[in-house]
UniProtKB/TrEMBL annotation, chain A:
This is 4Fe-4S dicluster protein. The keyword Aminoacyl-tRNA synthetase does not apply. Residues 246-278, 327-355 form the 4Fe-4S ferredoxin-type domain. Keywords: Iron, Iron-sulfur, Metal-binding. It comes from Plasticicumulans acidivorans. The keyword Protein transport does not apply. Gene3D superfamilies: Alpha-helical ferredoxin (1.10.1060.10). GO terms for molecular function: iron-sulfur cluster binding; metal ion binding. It comes from the Bacteria.
From TrEMBL, chain B:
SUPFAM superfamilies: Ferredoxin reductase-like, C-terminal NADP-linked domain, Riboflavin synthase domain-like. [2Fe-2S] cluster binds at residues 245, 250, 253, 261. It comes from Plasticicumulans acidivorans. InterPro entries: Cyt_c3_hydrogenase_gsu, Dihydroorotate_DH_Fe-S-bd, FAD-bd_FR_type, Flavoprot_Pyr_Nucl_cyt_Rdtase, FNR_nucleotide-bd, OxRdtase_FAD/NAD-bd, PyrK_electron_transfer, Riboflavin_synthase-like_b-brl. The keyword Metal-binding applies. This is NAD(P)H-flavin reductase. Its cofactor is [2Fe-2S] cluster. Transmembrane segments: none annotated. Binds 1 [2Fe-2S] cluster per subunit. The lineage of its organism: Bacteria, Pseudomonadati, Pseudomonadota, Gammaproteobacteria, Candidatus Competibacteraceae.
Length: 362, 281
């Protein structure tokens, strides 16, 4: 493990830009930590946090220090950069009675993701499996450089520990940073997770981390773990969900759920997409567009004769059983990384950890 | 990060030219298609489907209804029920549509060799079963008794009417048809298709049953078959769900843990029967 002083961050940003990467990272906007293009490290949400999160509740606040990565998880995951909310898949042109169809050109600019948390690394790994054959996703994925940031504090709705995804970045990054600034010595610990990452790290003015650095890292991780108030008990959960598809409890959640789809839109693993074919007014040209969908939309399960999941209870059941039971069968991993976004984003405060616990005991 | 598994043609339909359109019923028609580029067509297995693309309007899953062993056009039988299928009904010879596929699991025609074959269809559900029937006829001696039990709404809704007659006449096959509502000139059976199943004509202990039709019909049919002694592990059914990709990544066709597009559409009953019993799954 290496150590980088505060200005080393500027050097890292510069090196990435020099290597042709567009930087995507956190910034403060509209009283939230959002992900957007960054020009320099000065645009990071310096001194801000969004740790105050709860069911249906999100607040940013000044930290009283100048931490660059002192926030936890904003409302957005990284999926929009790999699986865009809207994407043209095909273009077609009419030729007499016939047609020519071409795959749309995939835009896959080199992007560096700055500040990917462990839970979101896990989410990217999940979508890597879902989209393993998808040409657009894979091209964008291959073009990205990932700078992870370890969590030394947890947010109000985080439960990555019980999902085995955090708070420490384990794999799937090029570089992983840990920001240490509590002891008057603002610095970053840096670990390379790939050859590309190691090569880049070699160009930076980094020194070997000390025993004290290692201790501070462990202490930070322990603090984050200790701050997590929620967990999902996995023992017997998937089996209970599979067996209790007809349980009246779904009706109870269905009565509270607004069916607004917020949870699926903020969830970094949800992959449902609608595919829409469109035609120009004169009928000569057409395109196929994929855009995000949600199992909370009635049209999601439409077949001739009607929608399959008409009740909100049935749609909530689809979401929860998919996340916590069926995902494992489909992709060999859980569909939930414990990022807590769906809890924070739910207008009525429905909490996946609480519903899972209730159904497990049902 | 390796992109080796990425498939550049994943979403790309291939243009096919309509060589023939045949009206089957007032709302149902059969299209015969040949690749517009004149190159070879991929092989398919009975029960598989293609995604058919109507220019600029949409892409829908449609089962292949032709003979899997024949050299000839790709055959689809379609009921016009909405914008995309209506547009396909208006197609003329030499018009083109896009084809992606074939996709999905298939009827277990090879595993069923040596057994009686009971084929139960409702409405347009006969179309996805026709490739299995063609297969059984072509290899008639590999099977015991072959029964086709078919239910339609009215006598005017009986699909492949001439073929049904021919199968009954020319091959050693039990073909029974029933309608929900008779018209004046109908001298045949009236009632649900489960009645035909109850009538027997096969050896339940040595039978493989294939079903396609509305889910309620398949539910009752499987009960009737089971009551006669056909084991659940030898019953297969084809499911329909909304499908937008056919390759397991749009999420629409989920049925419990299954993606109907790639784990199905043909399932063995015992693999999904507990899910079938759940409302709005
Ligand atoms: C595996 C499979 C095989 C099928 N085989 C046949 C066949 O051989 N012949 C036939 O006539 N029909 C078949 N269907 C049903 C057919 O796909 C629908 O009738 C068709 O999608 C309706 O599209 P539409 O735009 O004309 O109508 P709309 O009702 O306007 O449909 C709008 C959209 O909803 C979806 N949708 C609607 N109904 C269905 C449905 N039943 N199943 C799946 N998606 C649906 C489609 O995405 C469609 O684009 C099959 C469906 C599946 C899943
Ligand atoms: S089915 Fe629902 S929970 Fe599952 S991926 Fe799609 S939107 Fe997310
Ligand atoms: S289900 Fe909720 S907590 Fe789990 S990954 Fe999705 S948004 Fe995060
Ligand atoms: S049709 Fe898209 S996942 Fe099955």
């Amino acid at each position: 493990m290496k150590r980088l002083h505060l200005e080393g961050l500027d050097a890292l940003f510069g090196a990435l830009r020099g290597a042709g990467y567009t930087l995507i990272g956190p910034r403060l906007r509209d009283r939230a930590i959002v992900l957007d293009e960054l020009e320099s490290a000065a645009e990071l949400p310096i001194g801000w946090t969004d740790r105050e999160q709860d069911g249906g509740h999100y607040r940013v606040a000044a930290r009283g220090d100048d931490a660059r990565f002192g926030y936890v998880t904003g409302p957005q995951g990284w999926k929009r950069w790999l699986f865009p909310p809207q994407e043209v898949l095909l273009r077609a042109r009419r030729l007499g009675q016939g047609m020519r169809i071409e795959a749309a050109t995939v835009e896959a600019p080199r992007r560096a993701f700055i500040g990917v948390r462990a839970c979101d690394l896990a989410a990217i790994a999940v979508q890597d499996r879902v989209f393993v054959h998808d040409p657009g996703y894979q091209a964008r994925r291959a073009a990205c450089f990932i700078v992870a940031v370890n969590c030394t504090e947890a947010g109000g709705t985080c439960f990555c520990v019980s999902q085995g995804s955090g708070p420490r970045a384990g794999a799937g990054f090029d570089l992983a940073l840990t920001e240490l600034c509590g002891d008057g010595q603002h610095r970053f610990l840096v670990e390379a997770g790939s050859q590309v990452g190691a090569t880049l790290l070699d160009t930076l003015d980094a020194v070997e981390a000390t025993a004290a650095d290692h201790e501070a890292l462990e202490a930070g991780l322990a603090r984050a773990r200790g701050q997590m108030g929620r967990r999902i008990e996995h023992e017997g959960l998937a089996a209970a969900l599979r067996e209790h598809l007809d349980h009246p409890y779904w009706q109870k959640v269905g009565e509270r759920c607004l069916g607004c789809a917020n949870c699926t839109l903020v969830c970094p693993t949800c992959f449902c997409a609608e595919v829409e074919d469109r035609m120009s007014l004169d009928g000569s040209e057409a395109e196929r567009v994929r855009h995000w969908d949600s199992c909370f939309n009635l049209e999601h399960s439409y077949v001739v004769g009607g929608t399959v999941r008409t009740s909100t209870a049935a749609r909530y059941r689809q979401w929860l059983t998919h996340k916590l039971a069926h995902w494992e069968t489909q992709f060999g991993v859980s569909g939930c990384t414990g990022c807590g976004r769906c809890i924070t984003a739910c207008p009525v405060g429905i909490d996946i950890t609480a519903e899972a616990a209730a159904l497990r005991q049902a | 990060m390796s992109t080796a598994a990425a498939d550049p043609g994943l979403w790309l339909p291939r243009p096919y030219r309509v060589s023939r359109c045949k009206r089957e019923l007032s709302d149902t028609f059969t299209l015969e298609l040949l690749p517009a580029d004149g190159e070879a067509m991929p092989a398919f297995r009975p029960g598989q489907f293609n995604m058919l693309y109507a220019f600029g309007l949409g892409e829908v899953p449609i089962s292949i209804s032709g003979d899997p062993d024949a050299i000839g056009p790709l055959v689809h039988t379609i009921r016009a029920v909405g914008p995309v299928t209506e547009a396909m009904r208006a197609l003329q010879p030499a018009d083109e549509i896009g084809v992606r596929g074939p996709f999905g699991s298939h009827w277990p025609v090879a595993d069923a060799e040596g057994m009686d074959l009971v084929i139960v269809a409702g409405g347009v559900g006969l179309a996805p079963l026709r490739p299995a029937i063609y297969h059984a006829l072509r290899h008639r001696r590999r099977y015991g008794r072959v029964c086709v039990f078919y239910g339609a709404r009215t006598p005017d809704d009986i699909l492949f009417k001439t073929e049904l007659k021919r199968w009954r006449g020319e091959f050693d096959m039990l073909v029974e048809v029933t309608v929900d509502r008779a018209t004046r000139d109908w001298a045949g059976k009236v009632g649900v298709v489960t009645r035909l199943v109850e009538g027997g004509g096969y050896d339940p202990l040595h039978t493989v049953a294939l079903m396609c039709g509305p889910e309620v019909m398949m539910r009752y049919t499987s009960r009737a078959l089971e009551a006669r002694g056909v084991a659940r592990e030898r019953m297969y059914l084809s499911l329909e769900r909304n499908m937008k990709c056919a390759v397991g990544l749009c999420g629409h066709c989920q049925f419990g843990p299954h993606f109907v597009c790639k784990d199905g559409p043909v399932f063995r009953l015992d693999a999904i029967e507990s899910l079938l019993a759940v409302d709005e799954l």
